[in-house]
Design brief:
Elements: H1 7-33, E1 37-44, E2 56-59, E3 62-72, E4 80-87, E5 96-102, E6 109-115, H2 123-126, E7 133-136, H3 140-158
Parallel strand pairs: 1-7, 2-6, 5-7
Antiparallel strand pairs: 1-4, 2-3, 3-4, 5-6
Length: 163
């Protein structure tokens, strides 16, 4: 029985395993970056408080992309322009709508895509711009805020000195 360890074989094995693991990691990174992506634009007419670049984009609750950029519209600063990076195989149809959503009460905001009937055409085939535009609808939070504002305005009328 030999008591001397063969340090050359141990070192070669260690280097070989390290190189194989590194190549596997590079292959895995390339595989995930080879996905096809499509950019879309969304124009919000409401504040997008809490939404940031890198926020999730979900289609019926399934993550399909991210928010690439957010900026104010140069023509109308009340509007927010969002650029979305969405998987190319996601079925974004002409009747798909985008809205702000939030997971839970304290969760981070994200963009929720909904709709898209099976018979509708794909948005990229109809909207031939470089970045097709997904239409928006008011979020639930915005609807609650609008209703609260209307209620306060009516209450002010009822409690005014004229009444």
């Amino acid at each position: 029985m030999e008591t001397k360890a063969n340090y050359v074989l141990i070192g070669a094995f260690t280097i070989l395993v390290t190189v194989v693991l590194l190549l596997f990691a590079l292959w895995a990174a390339k595989y995930s970056s080879d996905k096809e992506w499509q950019n879309y634009a969304v124009v919000f007419n409401e504040p997008v408080t809490g939404l940031s670049e890198g926020s999730s984009v979900q289609y019926n609750g399934i993550s399909v992309g991210t928010v690439e950029s957010l900026r104010l519209s140069p023509a109308d600063p009340r509007r927010v322009l969002a650029t979305l990076r969405i998987q190319a195989d996601a079925p974004i149809k002409v009747d798909t709508r985008a809205k702000m959503s939030q997971s839970g009460i304290t969760g981070s905001p994200f963009i929720q895509l909904t709709g898209g009937s099976p018979s509708a055409a794909l948005l990229v085939t109809v909207d031939r711009r470089e970045m097709p535009v997904i239409r928006t609808e008011a979020s639930a939070l915005q609807n609650i805020a609008d209703t609260a504002n209307r209620l306060v305005a009516r209450l002010d009328q009822v409690l005014s000195e004229e009444n």
